Amino acid sequence: MSDAVTEADIQLIQKILPHRYPFLLVDKVHSINGTTSAVGIKNVTMNEPHFQGHFPGNPIMPGVTIVEAMAQTTAVMVGASLGLTDGNLLVYFMAIDGCKFRRKVVPGDVLEMHVETTRGKPGGKVWRFKGVATVDGEMAAEAEFTAMMDMQG
Q1: Cβ atoms of 153 and 88 closer than 8 Å
Q2: CA-to-CA distance for 22 and 120, rounded, in angstroms?
Q3: Under the phi-then-psi rule, with left for phi > 0, alpha for psi from -120 to 50, and beta for the rest, what region is 129?
Q4: Catalytic residue at 50?
Q5: Cα Rg of the chain (Å, integer)
Q6: Of the four, 20, 66, 129, 147, which is 20 to 30 A from 98 by CA?
Q7: Catalytic center at which residues (predicted)?
């Protein structure tokens, strides 16, 4: 198991995810434990386009983008663990449950997405995950979500 991928930098993330600016919402993933759990990092900056309108003079990261960042973290975890790169993995939301927002996420914050698989296995199409997004150890958001993993490879 020494070949196991335990982290993904932006180059590997871009090989796994089809997302690109402005919708690539994870900068790094570390602590990858197979398809079981991982931690994603999103450096929140004022340069992101949603801050122009959400909200002018009081920039706050939209909650839906926080949930999307958690989902992208799970896709990187699964893709890195299963060697699915270069367009071999597409992920589609099927459900979002128990979603709660606890604090604002603003430019300058480092958003950490702690994700774990609650149902799903290599080769399976429908997976379920739990995610908690934090800033400085304080919960910003949490959600459980179900996704279809369309593995092309």
Answers
A1: yes
A2: 29
A3: beta
A4: no
A5: 15
A6: 20
A7: 54
